[in-house]
Design brief:
alpha+beta; 8-stranded mixed sheet; 3 domains; 29 strands; metal ion binding; Glucose Oxidase, domain 1; elongated; Fumarylacetoacetate hydrolase, domain 2; 9-stranded mixed sheet
């Protein structure tokens, strides 16, 4: 988007930035000579913004009320190439950023005037060694000021040809996208940064402002390749800086003892990596396993009791409703695998319905204790599974089949030992109403949300979906509830009334505890 003509400053007249020598200027030779060729001056100051992207603020857990800054020496600037991780350090982190190159003197300009002082934008990488942050006491001089710690380039986008609120920044590490954000939601737009800095500091041609990094910044190691690109996707013609490519190498000369030496702790590791999990510091919850002992305990209580305990914990929407079972006498306990059908559309069925489609892949991949749960949108006007696939699930050792759609070959499926919960029989083939689309994702079945790995429990009362992290607690409470209800039933059979007994008041609870002791 064209930038409006520069408004006059009330305190210092401004001039338009000098034109670039070419439509797309590529930095070459040295930083000093390249920037001088662009704006008529060599780089003076490098000023960096702490936090400017909402995604980064969410990651760091703090939202700035006003912009804050730190200085980097001009000697930290570099072209694409190599960066040395200082010998003896652990936490070299990248931060892909958009760099503003100041093209005209700015002092006490307004936010509306600030963008007019910018000659161009380019990609930059604000590298830092977290091992030395403690020594900087907030200045970032040692941790971020090392030679080569601010690569920029490889090309500059003319400020007059881009909308500062419609730029995109992306960073790749070893070819994998690590950062992807835009300037649309910055806390502090570029014009405001220039204006704020210019209140006390004269910005001069060649000065560079690093405008903050989005979420995704993390640690890199020797051998890693970091690439940063800034582009303008909405521009009338393709505009990109190209990828700023930096290769990390290991330093060979350790820091001398007459200065601060590297020091890290878990707080610095968490900050550098972006999270405790990424740094390998957060305790990893043990993977939930549906053991034989746990299945036995689940099978010792009814779904009605489990439902009551889930309700006590605020889970009121965990029943798969409206289905009948081919084997109501068989208890179903297993972990969900999911399959989703889309409503039939001829072109989609042609591309996804034939051959080794998602339905066949899902049934072929089942294993012991798996319950294949099918989202058919409650559509009963066709079959969603038939005798061959049901037999395949049984042979694979699966615990059961659940579909809120129809079943073909219902008599044959009913004759199998594997329990199949369904909305009714129907002779039509799958393609009449459904396209098998994707597997192992969150789905809806019978009015309930089901995620892969959820525990599915079914009996004559119906089907429940239990989040894995609740299973142990819910089952333990359900066992105790049924023990209490056994006592209550025994008392009712002996002639006692239910008032005060169901539920038990304090007197009956005392008698229940005595009854328990006698049962031991």
């Amino acid at each position: 988007m064209p930038v409006p003509p520069q408004a006059a400053s009330t305190t210092a007249p401004q001039v338009s930035p000098p034109p670039f020598n070419t439509e797309e200027c590529r930095l070459s030779d040295t930083i000093e000579s390249a920037v001088e060729a662009l704006v008529g001056a060599r780089p003076g100051k490098v000023i960096a913004v702490h936090i400017n992207y909402p995604s980064r603020a969410a990651q760091r857990g703090r939202v700035p009320a006003q912009p804050s800054y730190f200085l980097k020496p001009a000697s930290s600037l570099a072209l694409p190439g190599e960066i040395e991780r200082p010998a003896g350090t652990e936490l070299l982190a990248f931060e892909g950023e958009i760099a503003l190159i100041i093209g005209t003197r700015a002092r006490r300009v307004s936010p509306a005037e600030g963008w007019n002082a910018v000659a161009g934008v380019t990609a930059s990488n604000d590298f830092g060694v977290y091992d030395l942050r403690y020594a900087d006491k907030g200045s970032n001089l040692r941790s971020k000021g090392g030679d080569g710690f601010t690569p920029i380039g490889p090309a500059v986008l003319p400020a007059r040809e881009v909308d500062p609120a419609a730029l995109r920044i992306r960073t790749w590490v070893n070819g994998v996208l690590a950062q992807d954000d835009t300037t649309a939601t910055l806390f502090f737009p570029f014009g405001r940064l220039v204006a704020d800095l210019s209140q006390l500091i004269t910005l001069e041609p060649g000065d560079i402002i690093l405008t903050g990094t989005p979420a995704g910044a993390s640690v890199v190691r020797p051998g890693d390749v970091v690439e940063v690109e800034v582009d303008a996707p909405a521009a009338t013609r393709p505009l990109t800086t190209g990828r700023l490519r930096t290769i990390v190498i290991e330093g060979t000369i350790p820091l001398a003892g007459y200065g601060a030496e590297p020091r890290v702790d878990n707080l610095q590791r968490t900050e550098a990596w972006g999270s405790a999990e990424a740094a390998g510091l957060a305790p990893v919850a043990p993977e939930f396993v549906l053991t034989a002992a746990l299945k036995e305990r689940i099978n010792s209580v009814g779904t009605a009791t489990l439902s009551a305990q889930l309700r006590k914990r605020g889970f009121n929407n965990v029943s798969i409703d409206g289905l009948g079972s081919t084997r109501p006498d068989v208890r179903l306990v297993g972990r969900a695998r999911t399959l989703r059908y889309l409503p039939n559309r001829e072109d989609l069925f042609e591309s996804h319905g034939g051959g080794y489609n998602a339905q066949k892949r899902a049934f072929d991949s089942l294993g012991p204790d798996d319950v294949i749960v099918l989202e058919a949108r409650g559509e009963r006007g066709t079959g969603t599974v038939g005798d061959i696939l049901a037999l395949r699930a049984q042979v694979r050792g699966a615990a059961g089949i659940v579909t809120d759609g129809g079943v073909r070959d219902l008599a044959a499926v009913t004759a199998l030992s594997i329990p199949t919960y369904h909305a009714g029989g129907h002779p039509a083939v799958l393609g009449r109403r459904h396209v098998p689309w994707d597997t192992d994702l969150a789905i809806a079945c019978g009015g309930a949300a089901v995620q892969p790995g959820d525990v599915i429990v079914g009996d004559a009362d119906g089907l429940l979906v239990i989040p894995p992290h609740l299973v142990e607690d819910v089952v333990a409470s359900a066992i105790e509830q049924e023990r209490e209800e056994g006592f209550i039933a025994e008392m009712v059979a002996a002639g006692h009334g239910v008032d005060g007994l169901y539920p038990m008041n304090a007197d009956w609870k005392a008698r229940y505890r005595h009854w328990q002791e006698e049962k031991k």
